[in-house]
Write a structure and sequence with these properties.
Elements lengths: L2 H22 L2 H28 L7 H13 L5 H13 L10 H4 L1 H5 L21 H24 L4 H22 L10 H6 L6 H6 L11 H9 L4
Helix pairs in contact: 1-8, 2-3, 2-4, 2-8, 2-11
Length: about 240
């Protein structure tokens, strides 16, 4: 089965569990699980996949390196290699027909829920830098096996753990990416949006990011930049 079809299966399961969670969980659990899920999405999607692995905007120690690799893997946006390849291609061909997730050419709804519409094409050559590292190569090769093992392990320990530690981080990561990819490129041109910056942990400063892609922090508000300040090395 192609990787995009595998992602579709995982995302379908995640969205179904997310939508029925009010029937399974108490309101207090949903509140706390959303906070946990949001933080894991920020570390996995924005701090890890986006600013650290893709743009190499900061350095950190081995503990945080592997912690970010773990978080980046469980948010179910593809391996670090796959996500980096798509995102760097986006930067190169931003808002053109070759942009992997341009709402102008792909459609706003399709881009927001891109994993359901095969909107993201992966060309590993854009992530050749990561393929030099054994941990990224291993995760890329075995991504869906590792993700399946993780979910099954959570279910064995306690099925409820699947919600805060997989379902919510995954769905929130998709929503975060969808918001930025659609609304910060709404008219076929990259833009900044302070409200989105508040909502999506600093990613609303998207025009700034395209101009300063290797910066580890964006203008305030930037929750991701705050976390990076705490874990980055001074070198």
């Amino acid at each position: 089965m192609p990787d995009n079809k595998k992602l579709l299966v995982f995302h379908s399961i995640g969205w179904i569990l997310f939508l029925i969670s009010p029937l399974i969980l108490s309101l207090s659990n949903i509140f706390y699980f959303l906070i946990i899920g949001y933080l894991l999405a920020v570390f996995g999607h924005i701090v890890g996949l986006h600013r650290y692995f893709t743009h190499k905007s900061f350095n950190t120690n081995k503990f945080w390196h592997y912690f970010l690799l773990f978080c980046s893997s469980i948010v179910t946006l593809g391996s670090t290699v796959a996500w980096t390849a798509v995102h760097l291609k986006h930067h190169r061909f931003s808002d053109t027909e070759q942009d992997s997730h341009s709402p102008k050419y792909k459609g706003h709804f399709k881009v927001f829920f891109g994993y359901f519409f095969d909107a993201y094409d992966v060309e590993p050559r854009y992530a050749a830098r990561l393929l030099k590292y054994p941990e990224h190569k291993f995760v890329h090769k075995h991504y869906f096996k590792l993700l399946s093992f993780y979910i099954v392990l959570l279910a064995i320990i306690n099925p409820i753990l699947i919600f805060p530690l997989w379902v919510f981080p995954t769905v929130l990561s998709v929503i975060m990416g969808g918001i930025v990819n659609v609304f910060n490129h709404w008219n076929g041109e990259v833009s900044d949006n302070k409200l989105i910056a508040w909502t999506v942990a600093g990613e609303g400063w998207h025009k700034y990011h395209h101009i300063n892609s290797t910066a580890w922090r964006n203008p305030s508000p930037d929750l991701s930049g705050f976390f990076i300040r705490l874990i980055k090395s001074n070198q």
